[in-house]
Amino acid sequence: MTTVTQLRNPASRPATEVALDLSKAFAKKAHEVDIGAGFPHENIRLVHEAGLSALTAPVELSGRGAKLAEAADVIRIIAQGEPSTALILIMQYINLATLPASRWPTHLVSKVIRDAVDNGALINALRVEPELGTPIRGGLPAATARRVANGWSISGRKIYSTGVEGLTWAIVWARTDEEDVRFGGFLVPVNAEGFTIEKTWNPLGMRATGSHDAVLQDVFVPLDHAVDIRRPSEWDARGEGQAAWFGILPGALYTGVAEAARDWLVRFLKERVPSNLGQPLATVPRIQQALGEIEELLAVNRRLIGSAARDIDEGRSVSQSEAGLIKVVTTENAILAVEKALKLSGNHGISRNNPLERHHRDVLCGRIHSPQEDTVRIGAGKLALGI
């Protein structure tokens, strides 16, 4: 079992260096994690011991205070080793970075962040429902919060709940039972009575995210745990401060997957010596050009993600539309890069004895995350048309 002491003094080193050590350790067992489709508890434990659980939490609350550019680099590097772990961390990093500027009660922000710093506690928002789908496309959740003495009683079902199997805190999106309906986030401890997990997650790729169904039956939370509920007209698609992070971090993750695919391909091309050629495939100009096309896609992604993240970190705004376009372009580039690698490797690439087929399954999941291609491009088109 890998221990944090094997990561060479993580507290005194840059987060990206620590992430690289973690990524290498994760890669050794990524095949087993994929096959077993279980939550990556060991990976998350190592992330915490290495000091990266609260990477984006503010320094004043004992976090590392990382901004978006650093977080994107860490996510990309970890995804090279095991992308399901990286996706769970995306949700953690977004919440820890944006909660301090949110409408949440200050004491609850501090409680959640301290829990992440001290205990590696994970947090994520549970939004998607069987009938509603993702609320980013509009509509009210079916999950209902009913006012009771001293608090709220919440009932409903959430699906595709990333990381729910390993969460300590869930931000459950629900509507109130008030005549003037409000909806939004209710902070719920996952170990609360009436909160159960149904293991329904069995996907093609990103198999270890533990994104099972969460079922709430009369789950009680105190009154102040209605951390941010508003009338429908008062909400934007993502909530203030999160759109840019949701636009950039998924692209970083799937770029990392594509880089792992590229690294495998490079080794294959150097080692593969067909008898009719008598030398490695890497010496063939056509192969070199095709590999250059993959490098082109990855270079564009890294530059685009890095530039946009630095703009945000330095206070230059990136619109919600532009953030969505960045997500679409970078994930599509990553998918195309892996598909090109498959073409070059032939049957070897689709063999389950090699990791490239896993990288292909994982990278395809980039299309699923919100915001999705159609909503992003329709929104950008309307914006351009002034509609």
Automatic annotation (TrEMBL):
Residues 129-219 form the Acyl-CoA oxidase/dehydrogenase middle domain. Gene3D superfamilies: Acyl-CoA dehydrogenase/oxidase, N-terminal domain (1.10.540.10), Butyryl-CoA Dehydrogenase, subunit A, domain 2 (2.40.110.10), Butyryl-CoA Dehydrogenase, subunit A, domain 3 (1.20.140.10). Residues 24-92 form the Acyl-CoA dehydrogenase/oxidase N-terminal domain. GO terms for molecular function: flavin adenine dinucleotide binding; oxidoreductase activity, acting on the CH-CH group of donors. InterPro entries: Acyl-CoA_DH_C, Acyl-CoA_Oxase/DH_mid-dom, Acyl-CoA_Oxase/DH_mid-dom_sf, AcylCo_DH-like_C, AcylCoA_DH/ox_N, AcylCoA_DH/ox_N_sf, AcylCoA_DH/oxidase_NM_dom_sf, Mito_Isobutyryl-CoADH. Signal peptide: none annotated. CDD domains: ACAD. Residues 251-370 form the Acyl-CoA dehydrogenase C-terminal domain. Keywords: Flavoprotein, Oxidoreductase. This is Acyl-CoA/acyl-ACP dehydrogenase. The lineage of its organism: Bacteria, Pseudomonadati, Pseudomonadota, Alphaproteobacteria, Hyphomicrobiales.
